[in-house]
Design brief:
The protein has 142 residues and is mostly helical. The chain has one domain. It is 46% helix and 6% strand. The chain has a two-stranded parallel sheet. The longest helix has 18 residues.
């Protein structure tokens, strides 16, 4: 499961669809609707806010908006309300780590997209995140 800190605009089609599916799985976990993945480290930051379900819904709405901008149709009726969602904190080190990880994936999987983004030095974060100083998050599996 990978719930990117990066803005979804950087993902290729395969990555965007995977993010949507994994986000829906994370939503199911946060709702208590599944037994698997309950202790997945990627969920740590979504469990900490006062309204975890609203937060994952807000996260996924932005993913769906990116998909719509590309002409894809993600079923937003699967989402609940995003009211009460507040921005999440993310470290610049985590964003940098994810950027390197994504660039390795795109180099193999989507060379044209890799060429488009490889000169980017400061990628944007997903709009739900507010960047703060710091290294790679302790929950990240390397």
């Amino acid at each position: 499961m990978r719930l990117w800190t990066l803005h979804p605009k950087y993902l290729d089609a395969q990555g965007l669809v995977a993010l949507w599916r994994e986000g829906l799985l994370a939503r199911a976990v946060l709702r208590g609707a599944t037994r698997g993945y309950r202790h997945h480290p990627q969920l740590t930051r979504f469990r900490s806010p006062a309204a975890p379900r609203a937060t994952i819904n807000a996260y996924l709405r932005i993913v769906a908006a990116e998909a719509a901008a590309r002409g894809y149709s993600f079923n937003q009726s699967k989402l609940g309300p995003g009211r009460g969602a507040r921005p999440l904190r993310a470290t610049r080190g985590q964003l940098a780590y994810e950027w390197q990880h994504l660039m390795r994936k795109l180099r193999r999987r989507s060379p044209a997209l890799y060429a488009r983004w490889r000169g980017t030095r400061l990628p944007e974060a997903h709009p739900l995140f507010r960047l703060v100083a710091g290294g790679v998050e302790p929950w990240e599996r390397r």
